[in-house]
Amino acid sequence: MFVGSIRNDSHTRKVTQAVMRMAPASLKLEIVEIRQLPFYNPDHEQSPPPDVVAFRERVRRAEAALFATPEYNRSVPGVLKNAVDTGSRPSGHNTWGGKPAAVISVTPGQYGAMGANHHLRQSLMAVGLATMPLPEVYIVHAGDLFDEKGEIKVEPVAKLLGTFIERFAAWIEMVLATIK
After folding, report:
1. How many domains is the chain built from?
2. How far apart are CA 141 and CA 63, in angstroms?
3. Residue-range definition of the domain harbouring residue 15
4. CATH of the domain at 100
5. Tens place of pLDDT for every residue, the chain, 180 residues?
6. Is the pTM value of this prediction over 0.90?
7. Which residues is 103 bridged to in the sheet?
């Protein structure tokens, strides 16, 4: 799981953690931290920084990728786009290609970070991720979702996320079965 907000107590991270608790036993979900990645720079490809090498290896080992993004100025946060770019380079060594993926977007506002969701989907398509088409998940009013224990207290949102993660598990199986 790749979280586009690097703030420790972000709504996006909280939604991601809730999804992890809802996941079926068949999924082993982990958050891959991206805050430490330097900006992608082709000049470093002959000798990539250790954080880049470790990140690419972690992506390479993953069978799937779940992205959770807030929206910054109707787009994806730079740190998340940087992670996508870092994993796709250098040319011919894309660590993302062919993997099943899914996107959740989260906002304290009312539009569900739809712009970020769609921009991210475009980038994921460009790097060859097989992104789950449905259900699309746009979480609104994220500041009102959680109880004091960090659990989602809004039943329709909890139900949507439960359905989403079950379908993502099925999507992973389907995509992996077609490429093996």
Report:
1. 1
2. 31
3. 2-179
4. 3.40.50.360
5. 999 999 988 999 999 999 999 999 999 999 999 999 999 999 999 999 999 999 999 999 999 999 999 999 999 999 999 999 999 999 999 999 999 999 999 999 888 799 999 999 999 999 999 999 999 999 999 999 999 888 999 999 999 999 999 999 999 999 999 987
6. yes
7. 67
**Distance from C-alpha of 130 to C-alpha of 25, rounded to nearest angstrom:** 22
Tell how strand 2-3 and strand 100-106 pair up: unpaired
Q: How far is CA 27 from the centre of its chain?
A: 15
3-state per-residue secondary structure call for 90-152 = CCCCCCCCCCEEEEEEECCCCCCCHHHHHHHHHHHHHCCCEECCCCCEEECCHHHCECCCCCE
Amino acid at 53: V
175: tokens are 């995509």
Residue found by looking up tokens 């998940």 in the block: 137
Phi-psi region of 66 (alpha: psi -120 to 50; beta: other; left: phi over 0): beta
Are residues 65 and 129 in contact, defined by beta-carbon separation less than 8 angstroms?
yes
